Amino acid sequence: MTSVTKKITTNTRVIKDLFTKYTDTFIALKELLNNSIQAKAKSINLQIDYTEDLLCKSSIKQIEIFDDGHGVSYSDFDKKILEIGTTAKEKGQGIGRFSSFQIGELMHIETIGYDDIKNSFSKTSLSIDTTDFQDAQLEQTEFKVDYEYFPQKINTHYKVVIQNLYHNVSFPPLVQRL
Fold it and tell me: What is the pLDDT at residue 2?
């Protein structure tokens, strides 16, 4: 697998307004599911993993959305994933994948898509920790992107995993319960 560093790019939209557009977790989650539908997914799997750790901010360890849609090739990754407010999609604003930041601090994307330029399938992975750019200019922050090409046909998909959730604390801290 090859690794490179990439930067997120933006159009002229105000980043803060885009990332805080979602008023609650449900709307953010709905946006992520809508992306799967737009990718012509025949199957969308939503998995919620819970934790028993009483010191966690949330009773939910992670949320994973996996679809069998057409995915995103490495050649299209910059335009379709790293460009915020993109016009690459007919419907939408190009911010749906970042709605996960309304749910948790960590976002992991893995996608396999057919790459028309290389005439092969590519797998691309990116992890973003929002604490990496809290006090920095987003466009100045580099993110590691892993990618590889496959000579054979493989099933396309798009997977996003959200961790370190902000919400959904289902019980008071241990100290308050004693």
Answer: 92
Between strands 104-115 and 83-84, the pairing is unpaired
CA 169 to chain CA mean position, Å: 22
- State the pLDDT at residue 168: 44
pLDDT tens digits for 54-87?
666 668 889 999 999 999 999 999 888 887 765 5
Q: Pull the structure tokens for residue 141.
A: 């922050």
What distance in Å separates the CA atoms of residue 128 and residue 70, rounded to the nearest whole number? 22
Q: Which amino acid would we find at residue 51? A: T
Full-model pTM? 0.77
Angle at Cα 155 formed by Cα 114 and Cα 47, nearest 5°?
A: 120
Which residues contact residue 129 at a Cβ distance below 8 angstroms, ignoring those fewer than 6 apart?
Answer: 105, 106
Tokens representing residue 88 in the block: 């690459």
Kindly write down the DSSP assignment for every residue of 102-139, as one continuous string.
GTEEEEEEEEEEEETTTTEEEEEEEEEEGGGGTTS-GG
Which residues make beta-bridge pairs with 122? 113, 149
Q: Which two tokens stand for residue 144?
A: 């590691």
Instruction: Tell me if 63 sits within 8 A of 47, measured CB to CB.
Output: yes
CATH architecture, range 2-167: 2-Layer Sandwich (3.30)
